Amino acid sequence: MSLFITLSLGSLLITLVGCNPQPQTSQKASTTSEKKPTTVRIVYSKLGPLAVVRKQGTLEKRLKAEGNSITWHEFAAGPQSLEALNANSLDITSTAESPVIFAQAAGTPLVYISTTQQSPKGVAFVVPKNSSIKSIAELKGKKIALQKASVAQYIIVQALKEVGLKLSDVTPVYLPPPDANVAFSQAKVDAWITWEPYITRVEEQGIGRILKDGTGLRDIGGFYSTTRQFAKEHPEIIKAFLEEVQKAEQWSKNNPRELARLLSKEVGIDVNTLEKVHTRLDYGLLPITNEIVAKQQQIADMYYDLKLLPKKIDIKEVILSPEEYAKITPQQLTSKQ
């Protein structure tokens, strides 16, 4: 009898084990290994490909299919967006060449993910419409408004050097664009280095004219950047982002009228004028190459020599490895190397 009970219990145990839903264990393990939904925080401006991506909603659709989402964040200029990146309140930003240099020197854990065309006509010195100033040389001793640590910082150094002047020969008035716009409108400064759409706005309002644009001065494009941690954890999101930006760039180039219509209301410029504004902008993403790194290093060294940077920096420290770039770079972009 005891043997019968023992065998019966054994059979019962075998039956229970056999009926134990083992797939639940593997399903639970699979679930815990999956990435949690991510809300990607991206900078945007009212002009450019990011404005198109945001308006058309293409990136949202792609990321939503993977369970992710986007929030868009506007800032006065590049330096402010990089402060947000450093504070972990932004994931992807777009700036000119100088903000990322100053941010790196300040310890921001950024990395470059792509660069852009130069768009030299998209930045300019503007002076009051009736100003007697006719050349950069005549800015000696004048007050010039500009965003510190921005493309305007690079342009002023380059322009003054071209006519034999130094930064100490003028009086920089460091203001973010909205405040600089007020100062310029109230004639509190003699000139303002700014970018679109501010350039066109002062022209349209009849309060200013272009003294000199960035042609011959701006010799490198801007940069899309993220944090090193985000690049490591979400390469597939960055690749999707760059692919949609690339599509927006191509669409903008091929559809100038539709582009103006899409952005006119938000920019506050009529369609015809905005279409002209876009002729000042160059389109296209570019990969990060050794030549780009070398040029950025040259600019960083220049700022250090001018005592505008607190320390020397090595641009290679914010560059990803070839393997990491392979994971995030669209095929079409890779072919441009």
Structure description:
It contains 16 helices and eleven strands. It is α/β, with parallel strands linked by helices. The strands form three sheets. Strands 7-6-8-5-9 form a five-stranded mixed β-sheet, sandwiched between helices. It has a four-stranded antiparallel β-sheet with strand order 3-10-4-11. Strands 1-2 form a two-stranded parallel sheet. Helix 7 links the parallel strand 6 and strand 7. The longest helix has 20 residues.
Compact summary:
This protein has 16 helices and eleven strands.
Oligomer: single chain
> What about the largest sheet?
5 strands, mixed
Percent helix, as a range, is 40-55%
Strand content: 15-25%
Mean pLDDT: 90
Number of strands: 11
Structural Rg: 26 Å
Principal-axes geometry comes out as globular
* Uncertain regions spanning at least 5 consecutive residues: 1-33
- Largest sheet strand order: 7-6-8-5-9
Query: What is the chain-wise order of helices and strands?
Result: HHEHHEHEHEEEHEHEHEEHHHHEHHH
Quickly count the helices: 16
Structural class: alpha/beta
| Separation, N- and C-terminal Cα atoms | 83 Å
SSE layout and pairings?
Blueprint: H1 2-19, H2 22-33, E1 39-44, H3 49-56, H4 58-65, E2 69-74, H5 78-86, E3 92-95, H6 97-105, E4 110-116, E5 123-128, E6 143-146, H7 151-162, E7 171-174, H8 177-185, E8 191-195, H9 198-204, E9 208-213, E10 223-227, H10 228-233, H11 235-254, H12 256-267, H13 271-278, E11 285-286, H14 290-305, H15 322-328, H16 331-334
Parallel strand pairs: 1-2, 6-7, 6-8
Antiparallel strand pairs: 3-10, 4-10, 4-11, 5-8, 5-9
Helix pairs in contact: 3-11, 4-11, 5-6, 12-13
